[in-house]
């Protein structure tokens, strides 16, 4: 049975931006444009929320396979970094990007045929290698440093691939994973029929997208922080840009997404099997799998099966159920961490007390 994490929204009503965690004198945020020597381009977001004079973890993260770095995501990562007193380095998925300085720039916004082919078969390692190279090239990763991994939704698959790439030393800087947070991984165990998988994708586009609107349009406004909405909702021009960008990214989004049929546990099992004895092993890392209690695309049985497989292969796995406070009737669904107050609660609950 999963441990319950209560994401209490009301406690953040009337909070200041400093209290919620996306502004403070010490907060640093910058988006870097990575350009590979072969011409591939995408963004890396750097957010440092560590309090002055303190040490905190470095968290590597990824966007989802159908999303890009924009103002709302930057605010969300700032909240995560602040409450975890951490430095967050988030890379876009190669091929799913937007040049924030020139949104209609299409140069370099593609995946290589090999990246897409492997991803469509459930192997995201080539994409993860490129993401790690981009983070290292734009921000810098220290040799042998300890890192944590954080991935939501389809982004959970990307950070699991990062773990496997590190374990196999394909990206050879000796990074050591101490913790992984995998939130709402879709099709976590990969044991569903094609029809069931198609239903999950349909639910993402209908039920869960409707719930996301509740979190963005109602809950963030309810606590006094609804001034930033999703990029495509900010103006007619942004809507036009969004359609333009998504149209050119159809192959990367849908063919890469096809690889989700393999499930999440397979790559984790391979990562655990390939970890070596040079310093702390991946199997020493704590791996946390979380699902929203009302999610229609992530299931308790799947998380339990994935966690059991991780344990059987020498890893440490734990499962969480994300729930609302007693009396709160809001559906706690797939995109629940788009609710800024609930994200702050999640980050606090997942941060070890000093």
Give a short summary of the structure.
With 354 residues, the protein is an alpha/beta fold. Helices cover 38% and strands 17% of the residues.
- Please tell me the overall pLDDT: 91
CATH domain topology: Rossmann fold
For the record, the CATH class is Alpha Beta
Number of domains: 1
Strand content: 15-25%
Would you list the SSEs in sequence order as H and E?
EHEEEHEHHEHEHHHHHEHEH
Shape: globular
- Structural class comes to alpha/beta
Largest sheet: 9 strands, mixed
Name the strands of the widest sheet in spatial order.
Answer: 1-9-8-7-6-4-5-3-2
Number of strands: 9
> Count of helical segments?
12
Q: Please, could you describe this protein's structure?
A:
The chain is an alpha/beta fold. The chain has a single domain (3-349), classed as Alpha/Beta hydrolase fold, catalytic domain (Rossmann fold, 3-Layer(aba) Sandwich). The chain is 38% helix and 17% strand. The chain has helices spanning 17-20, 71-83, 113-120, 125-138, 155-167, 194-205, 207-222, 236-248, 250-257, 265-274, 300-312, 340-349, and strands spanning 3-6, 28-35, 41-48, 58-62, 87-91, 146-152, 176-183, 286-292, 316-323. The protein has a 9-stranded mixed beta sheet. It is globular. It starts with a strand and ends in a 5-residue tail after the last helix.
């Amino acid at each position: 049975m999963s441990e319950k994490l209560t994401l209490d929204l009301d406690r953040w009503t009337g909070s200041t931006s400093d209290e919620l965690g996306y502004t403070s004198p010490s907060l640093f945020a910058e988006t870097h444009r990575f350009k590979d020597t072969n011409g591939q381009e995408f963004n890396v977001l750097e957010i440092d929320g560590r309090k002055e004079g303190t040490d905190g973890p470095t968290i590597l993260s990824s966007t989802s396979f159908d999303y890009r770095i924009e103002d709302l995501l930057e605010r969300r990562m700032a909240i995560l970094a602040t409450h975890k007193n951490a430095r967050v380095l988030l890379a876009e998925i190669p091929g799913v990007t937007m040049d924030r300085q020139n949104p209609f720039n299409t140069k370099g916004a593609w995946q290589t045929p090999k990246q897409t082919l492997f991803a469509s078969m459930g192997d995201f390692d080539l994409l993860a290698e490129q993401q790690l190279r981009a983070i290292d090239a734009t921000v810098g990763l220290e040799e042998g440093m300890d890192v944590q991994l954080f991935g939501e939704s389809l982004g959970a698959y990307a950070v699991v691939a990062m773990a496997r790439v590190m374990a196999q030393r394909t990206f050879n800087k000796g990074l050591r994973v101490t913790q992984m947070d995998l939130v709402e991984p879709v099709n976590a165990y990969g044991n569903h029929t094609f029809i069931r998988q198609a239903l999950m994708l349909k639910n993402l586009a209908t039920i869960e997208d409707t719930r996301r609107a509740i979190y963005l349009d109602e809950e963030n406004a309810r606590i006094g922080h609804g001034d930033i909405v999703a990029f495509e909702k900010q103006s007619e021009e942004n809507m036009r840009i969004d359609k333009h960008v998504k149209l050119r990214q159809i192959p990367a989004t849908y063919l890469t997404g096809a690889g989700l049929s393999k499930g999440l546990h397979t790559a984790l099992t391979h990562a655990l099997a390939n970890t070596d004895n040079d310093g702390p092993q991946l199997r020493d890392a704590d791996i946390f799998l979380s699902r929203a209690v009302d999610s229609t695309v992530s299931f308790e049985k799947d998380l339990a099966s994935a966690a059991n497989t991780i344990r059987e292969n020498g890893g440490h796995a734990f499962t969480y159920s994300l729930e609302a406070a007693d009396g709160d009737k809001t559906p706690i669904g797939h995109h629940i961490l788009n609710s800024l107050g609930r994200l702050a609660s999640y980050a606090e609950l997942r941060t070890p007390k000093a």
